[in-house]
């Protein structure tokens, strides 16, 4: 009898880096819970494409900036798949270009609520299910950070960069906290990746403008990031925890 398939939840798994991760994970044999915030059409199309390829996926609507949504998302994974083996904390937002002296409290609150608190709450729910100290079988978490945490995002979005700095600290701390409980926690820090996030922050031309500052002179692809995420989730990375893999094309 073949081993039961592992279950992966990808937050923001319906577009961009999350979608590439969902697709690659399904190909690797995971059953994938594809979370999204509002674009149901994109999530449904991705789930259908995965199923047509012979994979198994479930679209899960929920705002990671809302604790009740997170709880019901994990409960749906429990009911549908009956197990959880891995989490990719990928859902994240940017905002319009602004200096710190122009930022409203509401903007900062949204940024931290989605990017930081959302990732921490999802990790909490995953740990409750995967930690051997809670009766789980272990698992893996990959947090999506950004090289912005190191560069700081001056004049563009220091708030976003700071939210990813928080993700970096959280990755180290949680990795050490649950290392003896069968859970590995790692991060990837992409540079400029060709997705729709730049347009949603009001900068549709950002890649063309910024790619000259990248030593490789190009943006990365969502698939390149997904490959690193899948490796960190896999048993091949069995002694890797608390790591943060930069993928900035040399930047
Ligand atoms: P994207 O193309 O804009 O896709 C965002 C995904 O997240 C969509 O599936 C979206 O769902 C979902 N989402 C947004 N807000 C959400 C919320 N509150 N709750 C649940 N889901 C939510 O983004 P991306 O470029 O792939 O970025 C993914 C991650 O990589 C983010 O954490 C981002 O900060 C990080 N990153 C990106 C880059 C880059 O250059 N692209 C670089 C460094 C780091 P809907 O379709 O429903 O909106």
Automatic annotation (TrEMBL):
Q: Which domain of life is it from?
A: Bacteria
- Gene3D superfamilies on file: NAD(P)-binding Rossmann-like Domain (3.40.50.720)
* Residues covered by the Ketoreductase domain: 6-213
Keywords (A to Z) from UniProt: Oxidoreductase
Spell out the Pfam families in the cross-references: adh_short_C2
The Swiss-Prot or TrEMBL record annotates one GO molecular function as: oxidoreductase activity
Check the record and name the InterPro entries matching this protein: KR_dom, NAD(P)-bd_dom_sf, Sc_DH/Rdtase_CS, SDR_fam
> What is the similarity comment for this entry?
Belongs to the short-chain dehydrogenases/reductases (SDR) family.
By what name is this protein known? Glucose 1-dehydrogenase
Organism equals Mesorhizobium tianshanense
């Amino acid at each position: 009898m073949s081993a039961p398939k592992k279950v992966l939840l990808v937050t923001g798994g319906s577009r961009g880096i999350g979608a590439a991760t969902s697709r690659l994970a399904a190909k690797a044999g995971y059953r994938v819970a594809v979370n999204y915030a509002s674009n149901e059409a994109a999530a449904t199309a991705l789930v259908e494409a995965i199923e047509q390829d012979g994979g198994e996926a479930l679209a899960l609507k929920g705002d990671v900036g809302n604790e009740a949504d997170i709880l019901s998302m994990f409960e749906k994974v429990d009911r549908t798949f009956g197990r959880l083996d891995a989490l990719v904390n990928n859902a994240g937002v940017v905002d319009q270009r602004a200096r710190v002296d122009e930022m409203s409290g509401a903007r900062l609150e949204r940024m931290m609520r989605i990017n930081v608190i959302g990732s921490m709450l999802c990790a909490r729910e995953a740990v409750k299910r995967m930690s051997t100290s809670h009766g789980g079988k272990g698992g893996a978490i990959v947090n999506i950070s950004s090289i912005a945490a190191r560069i700081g995002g001056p004049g563009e979005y220091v708030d976003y960069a700071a939210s990813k700095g928080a993700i970096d600290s959280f990755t180290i701390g949680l990795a050490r906290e649950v290392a003896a409980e069968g859970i590995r926690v790692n991060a990837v820090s992409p540079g400029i990746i060709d997705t729709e996030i730049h347009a949603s922050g009001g900068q549709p031309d950002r890649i063309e403008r910024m790619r000259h500052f990248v030593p490789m002179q190009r943006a990365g692809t969502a698939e390149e990031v997904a490959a690193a995420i899948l490796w960190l989730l896999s048993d091949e990375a069995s002694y890797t925890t608390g790591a943060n893999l930069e993928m900035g094309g040399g930047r």
